[in-house]
Amino acid sequence: xxxxxxxxxxxxxxxxxxxxxxxxxxxxxxxxxxxxxxxxxxxxxxxxxxxxxxxxxxxxxxxxxxxxxxxxxxxxxxxxxxxxxxxxxxxxxxxxxxxxxxxxxxxxx
Amino acid sequence: xxxxxxxxxxxxxxxxxxxxxxxxxxxxxxxxxxxxxxxxxxxxxxxxxxxxxxxxxxxxxxxxxxxxxxxxxxxxxxxxxxxxxxxxxxxxxxxxxxxxxxxxxxxxxxxxx
Lengths: 109, 113
Prior knowledge:
The complex is a heterodimer.
Chain A: E1 4-6, E2 11-14, E3 19-25, E4 32-38, E5 44-50, E6 55-57, E7 60-65, E8 70-75, E9 84-91, E10 97-99, E11 103-108
Chain B: E1 4-7, E2 10-13, E3 19-25, E4 31-37, E5 44-51, E6 54-57, E7 64-70, E8 73-78, E9 87-94, E10 103-104, E11 108-112
Parallel strand pairs in B: 2-11
Antiparallel strand pairs in B: 1-3, 3-8, 4-5, 4-9, 5-6, 7-8, 9-10, 9-11
């Protein structure tokens, strides 16, 4: 089993809709979690950290489910500019940082 | 945006030739990283640095070497490029060790023919 797994998508979502995707991790001792976005042919950029209590930043909500070992990212009222690939990052109990392969999101006008 | 530049941005080279990629930061961050990104793989760590002249291997370090003679510069060298090293290379920086809060450079697209 991969350390970090993401559904590659693509998720094709109409503008204004709500979309959510998950990232599962295999190491139950993982301690820190993050979401990045990566536009086509650009560098990854930090989107938000994922706290145990959840984290909300405008239209974006990140949550952690330790029991089922996944983090989620929910985007409300999606915009065309949200089209990107979303990468999760997990820091394991051994302090190893692992990137997921990303979920591609396309917002359709 | 964090002040990180990479050069060159694109390079095509032949198998067996040496190649050096440069990463330059203006943020004075202690930690610097080199990653490669390939389809079907997440970003994979090649080497990282935790200070001037202090470097260590990542998970895919074979065939690569690094040097950091100044805080702001981190060089990645492919001693003898192979086609399997065709990839997009990203440099990143962070303030803390083992940090998920990293800031990436714009990347270098390297093609080895």
